[in-house]
Amino acid sequence: MEATWFVVADRSQAQLFEVEGTRLRPKLKPLETIEHPEARRSEARRNGASSSSGMRDLLADNNSTHEEQDRKFVRQLLDRLTQAQHQRQFDRLVIAAPADFVGRLRELAARSLAKSVVREIIGDYTNDTLHALQERARQKEWLH
């Protein structure tokens, strides 16, 4: 039986799950969470800017810094997934993340890792509970 991992991510965190159970009743076994605290701090700073000109200045000054931090986080996640793939911890990979994050993963992923991706789900599900994720995955047949 092929092992499947399910990755739920956004720009501030990635949650890794191993898919267990049956096809009709998939169960997600939490493996680890990879945090990206810089993204949370920058989001808080953006939300805290009081004027539109202050917001514009903040975004202009920090845009390239944020992009580089985001790339580092994507590379960190890809390094972890590549390591797990080499250790044969999974054969198939399902990714649920916002479109821009999925795009960065595609852009930076090695060919061998990209081939293991069997489904990309566009959306931010990082705030879902484990139970909600399992139910959503079952209802929408994400993990088949």
Q: Which keywords apply here?
A:
144 residues, alpha/beta, Nucleotidyltransferase, domain 5, 5 strands
Compact description:
The protein is an alpha/beta fold and about 140 residues long. The chain has helices spanning about 35-50, 50-85, 100-110, 110-115, 130-140; strands at about 5-10, 15-20, 25-35, 90-95, 115-120.
Query: Tally the helices: what do you get?
Result: 5
Tell me the series of helices and strands, N- to C-terminal. EEEHHEHHEH
The CATH architecture name reads 2-Layer Sandwich
Uncertain stretches? none
Number of domains: 1
CATH-wise, what's the superfamily?
eRF1 domain 2
N- to C-terminal distance: 12 Å
**Share in β-strands:** 25-35%
| Mean pLDDT over the residues | 87
The largest beta-sheet arranges its strands as 3-2-1-4-5
Q: What structural class results from the helix and strand content? A: alpha/beta
Broad CATH class: Alpha Beta
Categorize the overall geometry. globular
* Tally of strands: 5
Helix content: 40-55%
**Whole-number radius of gyration?**
17 Å
Task: Explain this structure.
The protein has one domain: Nucleotidyltransferase, domain 5. The longest helix has 35 residues, at 52-86. The mean pLDDT is 87. Strands 3-2-1-4-5 form a 5-stranded mixed β-sheet. Helices cover 51% and strands 26% of the residues. The protein has 5 helices and 5 strands. β2 and β3 (26-35) form a beta hairpin. It is α/β, with parallel strands linked by helices and 144 residues long. It starts with a strand and ends with a helix. The radius of gyration is 17 Å and the shape is globular.
